[in-house]
Specification:
- Strand 5 and strand 6 form a beta hairpin.
- Helix 2 packs parallel to helix 4, helix 6 packs across helix 8 and helix 8 packs antiparallel against helix 9.
- This protein is of the alpha/beta class.
- Strands 1, 2, 3, 4, 5, 6, 7 and 14 form an eight-stranded mixed sheet that branches. The protein has a six-stranded mixed sheet with strand order 8-9-10-11-12-13.
- 44% of the residues lie in helices and 17% in strands.
Amino acid sequence: MTNSKLFENQLIRTILALVAGLMVGFSLPPWGWWPLSIVGCSLFFQLTKFAKSPSEQFLVGFVFGFAWLALGMGWMWFLTAPGYLVVSLLFASFHGLASVIGSRFNSPMFAKPIAHTLAEALRFSFPFGGVPLATLPIAISPTQLADISAVGGPILVTWFVLQTAALIVGYFNRRQSRQPVAIICLLLIALQIFGQSFKSINTTNETLRIALVQGGGPQGVLAINARARDAFDRHLKVTKTLQSTDELDIVMWPENVIDVSKFASSREYLEIANESNRLDAQFVVGITEDAGTNRFTNAQIVVQPNGEITSRYDKVRRVPFGEYVPLGLRSFLKSIGAPVNQIPSDAVAGKDPALLNLRQTDVAVAISWEAFFAGRANSGVESGGTFLINPTNGSSYTGTILQSQQLATNSLRARETGRWTLQGATTGFSAVISPQGEITQRLGIGEAKTIIADVPLNTGRTIYSRLGDRVFIILLVVGLILCRPIRRIRDQNGY
């Protein structure tokens, strides 16, 4: 049986679509076999050539998307199995629709990658703000291919991977003209060179000596099942290993390690102020405070050595069904037996730019979940942040799927913003990442230690920092429209 006849069997096509999706899934952290992202997408595009109807196009795209995302978002299973299934099915349907749409345009070598990039852009923001995890940019984040994120962020990187995969399929198609293959190949190469060489970033020749405190402790622990003081005590114990001779400028604690009714009048505030005074260093700590009946705030604040609280940033992008239940759904979910008691209170969203003011400089801040949204990190850089911090609390999650993807995501954020990026976690991974995306220091899961780093302060903006996502989404839509009038005679199996 020839390869062509092999692909003409619908059952085999469906099975191979599952294999292609699993390849993309295994290209993601924690597995990290990144070349499979391109191989898997190439196999998928090859399969779509043989789908004989819109319904089968949808099926092939759906199976591909489901295998990819169900594997890559496995962390969600441990929080809510029903939610995990709903999200996997919903996002897989985006790729089913993209497969149908891409097949309706001429020049499918261009139309199909654009359609699936737009499907990814949709899931980055919808529903409830989106779930931009298990993405193609995360897969290639350890490589220099990810440098184009400084030009076009996650949208351009997603298109780059998909277009590269389509280019491979087009190259081996004998009926495909070599001219468009050569043109798109040159464009991809140009983007790579541009991404690696053109970054309007200025180093100030100034550094801050920063200690990241990781308290360690168990994973898979929900806030409602833990004593509020436990995480604080673990981080305080590790902090006491720091000495004044370390000559620190900043000590950073992760997200919501301090859970109190009102921080300024709490015992925890006095202990933080004492440590700040002992080390003569500013403390940047994560707090959770009450904000009325069944409401709370999730913030990162700055405490000075004299005890003064001088800056505060309240988390803007909250975790849906983790930190809040979207309006109107709490009663409905409770009526069908969903465990909404695990989310007894709703977080109040902040409204300010992602910035904290320090004595020496301003720092961009993305609290935990916000790191997955490039716009939140860029908000702080746009406002003058000279480095980026991502305080996070991953203790609710089991395994390392989410944690390793968050680390890879912060590697992208560092490239996109041209900033040194610090990820400070309760149970891991805490890390220091250079503007080139290199992880220079890292603590493992469950370790109770500190990282001390001299962090350079940068100014200036990358192209992506100035343009954002909107312009690239518009270009993709225009590109898809332009594919329609470019009509070529091709047989049913032509690419």
